[in-house]
Design a protein that fits this description.
The chain has 452 residues and is an alpha/beta fold. It is 37% helix and 14% strand. It has 14 helices and 11 strands. Helix 4 packs parallel to helix 5 and helix 8 packs across helix 11. It binds glutamine (GLN). Glutamine (GLN) binds next to loops. It is an enzyme of class 6 (ligase).
Length: 452
């Protein structure tokens, strides 16, 4: 097939399905079609493995000439004047950007219900959430609207929706992928990563977007190996750690059982597993919500009605302009985080909250380092339960936060983690989480591929 046909096919799927799924916020049809026609002229020998394939991009990744809202009213008409580094890399690899994908506002949430524009639905059961915050990215791939998407993961936002939607989602090592052009939520935790239908596609896409970038001082000067080369199927002698905290209290029976079943499969392929402990996991949620909200309160200060997007009308002076723009432009969850973050950074509370949380973060990181002295990967469920119903948790932020208990420690430690499908419960997918050492995505992919 030609690139033009592939592109057209993707838009056809979007038009057929997105009325139900509601994954896309903006389509790039005219430009993508023009691009696809040009691409058909490129000789075959110059085409890489991803050439001509359609991709959707989460709406917190800036795209020149395509409105980028972060699913917030405050950016309703923000038209970026440059492309994020990853978007350049997609184009270099020959991928065609089909459109922008719905998310929780500023990536704060676990269900995509915090979008100011629409609620994305889980393609497996439209009454259920797709997860979040990259819910649009996971749902679009699960529905077959696009074979590839990019999400971002600050505390689980790639892995949790991948798990809920039965697709493959990778949160790379912090620093592996440039954050230049990713609208910052919590800069010390945010990472962009690929969502795909299988492990091999995922490995190809991560290879394409990784690497040092002079525009992101936190991007790492570490060689990018060929991740696809590690898909050998051979995991003989691999040492797997299973944290008891990941199968214990608060984790549903279906999630627990599916992981035990997956471990049997891995054992039959020659791996060995043992139970370990990540003793500080119980502090991860509190630590994460404090640190990420603190960073967010600072990062979101730039949305003041002057520089980008929405601006409140009928105001008398500058202070009122700021206040009204932010009061009208931000949704409830974003305001909740800004207030929590501002409070914990204020002079009187800094030592008791922010500084303490930083110290606990170090302990959590050390838990992982200790386990990785003796094991190659850590395995557990991605989420305590399969996708919940739309509306079920919206009124209860604490229950919503608790959903992230198994994904958040990975971000705090900065290590990579993937979610791959590992069964169903009541017709809804379950995810297996495989966590690796810093910059060892290759081993994660090897295990994931052998299991798949
Ligand atoms: N659900 C988490 C939160 O609301 C994770 C978000 C994310 O990873 N972007 O903060």
């Amino acid at each position: 097939v030609s690139v033009e046909e592939l592109t057209a096919e993707s838009y056809k799927r979007v038009k057929e399905l997105d009325g139900d799924v509601q994954a896309f916020l903006a389509l790039n049809e005219e430009k993508a079609t023009a691009q696809s026609k040009e691409m058909d002229k490129v000789p075959f020998e110059e085409r890489g493995p991803l050439f001509g394939l359609p991709i959707g991009v989460k709406d917190n990744i800036v795209t020149e000439g395509i409105i980028t809202t972060c699913s917030s009213k405050i950016l309703e008409n923000f038209n970026p004047i440059y492309d994020a580094t990853v978007v350049h890399k997609l184009r270099d690899a020959g991928l065609v950007t089909i459109g922008k994908l719905n998310m929780d506002e500023f990536a704060m949430g676990s269900s995509t219900e915090n979008s100011a524009y629409k609620t994305t639905r889980n393609p497996w059961n439209l009454d259920h959430v797709p997860g979040g915050s990259s819910g649009g990215s996971a749902a679009a791939v699960a529905a077959g609207e696009v074979p590839f998407s990019l999400g971002s993961d600050t505390g689980g936002s790639i892995r949790q929706p991948a798990s809920f939607c039965g697709v493959v989602g990778m949160k790379p090592t912090y620093g592996r992928v440039s954050r230049s052009g990713l609208v910052a939520f919590a800069s010390s935790l945010d990472q962009i990563g690929p969502i795909t239908r299988n492990v091999e596609d995922n490995a190809f896409l991560l290879e394409a977007i990784s690497g040092l970038d002079k525009n992101d001082s936190t991007s790492a000067n570490v060689e990018v190996p060929s991740f696809t080369k590690s898909l050998t199927g051979d995991i003989k002698g691999l040492r797997i750690a299973v944290p008891k905290e990941y199968l214990g209290q608060g984790v549903g029976e279906a999630s627990r059982q599916s992981v035990l079943d997956a471990l049997k499969v891995l054992e039959s392929l020659g791996a060995v597993w043992e139970e370990v402990s990540l003793p500080h996991s119980k502090y991860a949620l509190a630590t994460y919500y404090l640190l990420s909200s603190s960073e967010a309160s600072s990062n979101l200060a730039r949305f003041d009605g002057i520089r980008y997007g929405f601006r409140a009308e009928n105001v008398q002076n500058l202070m009122e302009l700021y206040k009204e723009t932010r009061a009208q432009g931000f949704g409830d969850e974003v305001k909740r985080r800004i207030m929590l973050g501002t409070y914990s950074l204020s002079a009187g509370s800094y030592d008791a909250y922010y500084k303490k949380a930083q110290q606990v973060r170090t302990l959590i990181k050390q838990d992982f380092e200790t386990v990785f002295e003796n094991y190659d990967v850590i395995i557990g469920p991605t989420t305590p339960t399969p996708a919940f119903k739309i509306g079920e948790n919206v009124k209860d932020p604490l229950t919503m936060y608790a959903n992230d208990i198994l994904t958040i420690p990975v971000n705090l430690a900065g290590v990579p983690g993937i979610s791959i499908p590992c069964g169903f419960s009541d017709g809804l997918p379950l995810g297996l989480q495989i966590i690796g050492k810093h910059f060892d995505e290759a081993t994660i992919y090897r295990v994931a591929h052998a299991y798949e």
